[in-house]
Amino acid sequence: MEPGRLIFNTSGSGAGQMLFMDCGPGAVGAGATSMFHRGGMPLLGGMDEGRGVKRPFFTSPDDMLEEEYYDEQLPEKKRRLTPEQVHLLERSFEEENKLEPERKTELARKLGLQPRQVAVWFQNRRARWKTKTLERDFDRLKASFDALRADHDALLQDNHRLRSQVVTLTEKMQDKEGPDGSFGAAVDASQSELPAAEAKAAVSGAAEEQAGAESLEMQQQQLHVKAEERLSPGSGGSAVLDARDALLGCGGVVDSSVESYYFPGGGGTCADEYHDCVMGPVAGGIQSEEDEGAGSDEGCSYYADDPAAVFFAAAGHGHNNHHHHADDVDDQDDGQISWWMWN
DNA sequence: TTGTGTTTTATTGCCTCC
DNA sequence: GGAGGCAATAAAACACAA
């Protein structure tokens, strides 16, 4: 830079142009407009725009200390820091965003600013940094939330599909059960007084039924495994969402007389997209979690006492309420447990 | 040129810490 | 009690569209 001239910025945000100002000895001193802060010290140098006297916004630190320079108590105007000053301040801020007194003094001396200005700049810079950080955190959390919601929606769909399968299989099983609920009815017929041909046919039919029942049982086992996988915290998905999904999609009641399983129907139902949950008494080996024999698998509780009933529950916070109230989707994480089963 | 929105500089009041 | 930090705010400087 040539002597007697200073470069300063006329606009902020790095988008301003650079101006070259005359700043010879005559430009500084009496008659020049300066800005003053408390105590009569200037905040920044400036040109006398009103009287056409050119003066640098910033002179050397030594000039800044000349008493004559600050004599005038004219209305202060804010002046922006030069890019060079901002650059140095930014570098200093990157090193340490807090300002010790020694560093403040040193920076003020280097930049030709009041220590107070340096302190203010750091204060405002910290505020900007905090705002940026908050914005970044918000974006990150929002992205995470969106991903979780997508995952949740997918799980809901999956849950609906699995429940449809359970309904279908349950109906098939009911069709194949005898009036007493056993699969052995047809087989027993072979030991009755039927004619040999009829008995043979009955046995054959019973065998087919038995094979069919075994097939159904295998499918149910697969469903169970699938459901358990989905409820397991180690399944790769969100354990919270998995449990929540199980809660949302729960449903079922065991009829105490025939141990049959229904979907939404009797008991207390709440049928909207999220909760077609059916609450009701459980027969045949269903126990409360407080009872002996209840297994637990980190948020996925199951009961294997009764071979006729495969049962598991998803726990919110490990609480022990088996009657899930699903009046509102926002009530799901109240620690209640839901269950469903088939036989 | 003017109105409007944004950014930067600075102030004020409150709080915490030593 | 003084120093320093922070939040809220004012106000000047600036950008930009109409």
Which percent range fits the helix content?
Answer: 40-55%
What's the end-to-end separation, in Å? 90 Å
Strand order of the largest sheet: 7-8-9-10
Q: Label the structural class.
A: alpha+beta
The major sheet is characterized as: 4 strands, antiparallel
The chain-level mean pLDDT equals 52
Q: List segments where confidence is low: pLDDT < 50 over at least 5 consecutive residues.
A: 1-75, 183-203, 223-343
Cα Rg = 40 Å
Estimated share of beta-strand residues: 5-15%
What's the helix count?
Answer: 7
- From the spread of the alpha carbons, the general shape counts as rod-shaped
Instruction: Please count the beta strands (DSSP E, at least 2 residues each).
Output: 10
Order of helices and strands: EEHHHHHHHEEEEEEEE
GO cellular component, one term: nucleus
Keywords: DNA-binding, Homeobox, Nucleus, Transcription, Transcription regulation
Function: Transcription factor.
Main location: nucleus
